[in-house]
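Input/output pair, single chain:
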Amino acid sequence: MILYKAEDALMCKVFLMTLPGAAQDWIHTLPSGSIIRFKELAYVFTKEYTSYRTIKKNPDHLYNFRKKSDKSLRDYIKRFKAEKANIAGCDDRITSSAFRTGLPAEHDLYHELTITSIQTLAEFYATVERYAL
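Output:
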């Protein structure tokens, strides 16, 4: 609509029609006549709903993952893979390095992964899964 240089009033009305339930209810709580331009509406909407958006995680987030001492290796693998699935464009080397870093240094798999030269993530996961069995 900005591309076609639509009027602010029209842009506001069309925007309101795109809002689902709770956001639609919220918009009606604004004082009448308090929004004049679409830019103002965009600002108050963003201010209200910014905290609800999901924050994209970068690959470095995986380095915060640790194997819990009271949990199994299988649990760590499952949790790590699930977290890795939420990160787009994660390099294989970062993934394997972060996984190894999350293991306790005295863990046998940590030593295995440090010594073994693994080329692909598929090989890495195969080694980890084989070890977990």
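Residues 73-85 form the longest helix (13 residues). Residues 37 and 53 are 24 Å apart (CA to CA).
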